[in-house]
Design a protein that fits this description.
The protein is mainly beta. It contains 3 helices and 30 strands. The chain starts with 6 loop residues before the first helix and ends with a strand.
Length: 406
């Protein structure tokens, strides 16, 4: 029997045959070294290929390979080895086939904002043995913080470029790329680089945050958790499959605000609007209490406005509360006193009531501190910015924003 096929043809045939026999196998490629093969699962992944001459009667010295060696390897050094999920998402197998270094890439805009959901194309040299040309070796995607941390092979130089379906290429000229490392990588070492867009990607809502008027008698308690879901199309997958990658850390990126019916309609029309509370890049909220207006409908809007190519899975529970104070005068008129505001070292909370429940949240809705008597907050180790203080004295719930300045 004569067989002159390519490794790609063999890899597909072997994968099809194994899957027909219910043997778990994944199709792998080391693109810059121009070779593809497979790995079968048996408590871990094990290299397997039946390459070219392995199907001929005699084979020959170069092509007659039937490689089932544990962690099978070759004479060359691999830059990256990738496998594909059925939906097209790439899985990094490099550590099975190479001594690896760690690459930490971050995609930002010109204002320093992270660019989530960018596809990073990586190029390696030397490639295909000893060639000094840079050849595409893999694809990774940035998380909600614009980061892509992954393993790549040793003794290589790498270039990287980013593509985002909304913002296009970085660098703007898609024939160019950013340098990741100028000398060959060393196994166990870490190499970092920023890929920067020449534009500002922040597209904030046209919102003006305002204080509620008067005293209300109701509020809401919010418990929600958002989970980030990266969705993209892999250009190397010939089917152009769209994949969905769920964040294993169970963290999301949502925008949430509270408004009345008039401003809700303005928001839907993409017009400027006012909101009583406004949070962006929110991950979760646990027992987060907010006062609401009693003279109009109230809308709590949860949006994926700032997540770009990432979807958001949100689980939320909203409870109605009674006995809530909404007036700023109540905070400083003797019932509850918060001072100084802004502050740069300590924040003091006083009340005529002896027992208080004091919770402090950051602008992402994360609980950062719970205070006990004497209700003094020292935010040492936290970033400066705006924090939300929620106070429950057993009769009323108070909400006040404070500004921490280092």
């Amino acid at each position: 029997m004569k067989h002159d096929g390519m490794c790609n043809e063999d890899a597909f045939l072997v994968a099809a045959t194994c899957r027909t026999a219910l043997i778990p196998i994944i199709y792998l490629g080391t693109w810059s070294e121009d070779h593809v093969f497979g790995a079968v699962w048996d408590l871990d992944w094990h290299h397997f290929e039946f390459f070219r001459g392995g199907l001929s009667e005699r084979g020959n010295a170069f092509y007659g390979i039937t490689n089932m060696l544990d962690r099978g390897s070759y004479s060359w050094k691999n830059a990256m080895v990738e496998g594909f999920r059925p939906d097209g998402y790439t899985v990094n197998f490099t550590e099975y086939y190479a001594n690896t270094s760690n690459l930490k890439l971050r995609v930002l805009d010109n204002a320093g904002n992270p660019v989530a959901g960018a596809m990073i194309n990586l190029f390696a040299s030397p490639s295909m043995g000893t060639s000094s040309n840079f050849v595409k070796c893999g694809t990774v995607f940035t998380d909600r913080n614009g980061n892509a941390d992954f393993k790549a092979g040793e003794q290589k130089r790498y270039l990287a470029q980013a593509y985002h379906p909304i913002f296009g290429w970085a660098p703007r000229d898609s024939t160019r790329a950013f340098s990741v490392n100028s000398v060959n990588t060393v196994a166990g070492s870490t190499y970092s680089a920023n890929l920067v867009y020449e534009i500002n990607t922040e597209n904030d809502l046209q919102v003006n945050q305002v204080r509620m008027d008067g005293n209300g008698t109701y509020g809401i308690r919010i418990n929600l958790r958002s989970q980030d879901v990266l969705t993209h199309r892999n250009s190397r997958d010939s089917q152009r499959s769209r994949f969905y990658l769920w964040n294993e850390e169970d963290k999301g990126n949502i925008t949430a605000f509270l408004c009345d019916s008039i401003n809700f309609e303005n928001f839907k029309r993409k017009q400027p609007f006012e909101a009583f509370e406004y949070y962006k890049h929110l991950e979760s909220a646990e027992d987060f209490n907010l006062p609401v207006q009693t003279n109009s409908k109230n809308y709590l809007v949860i949006s994926a406005h700032h997540s770009f190519t990432h979807g958001q899975n949100v689980n939320a529970k909203i409870d109605l509360l009674e006995g809530v104070s909404t007036s700023v005068s109540d905070i400083n008129s003797g019932k509850v006193r918060i001072f100084p505001n802004p502050f740069n070292e300590f924040l003091k909370i006083e009340s005529d009531e002896q027992e208080l429940t004091v919770s402090i949240y950051d602008m992402y809705g994360r609980l950062v501190n719970s205070l006990e008597y004497p209700y003094i907050w020292n935010p040492k180790g936290l970033e400066q910015g705006v924090y939300n203080v929620i106070i429950n004295d057993g009769k009323n719930i108070y909400s006040e924003k404070v500004v921490y300045i280092k």
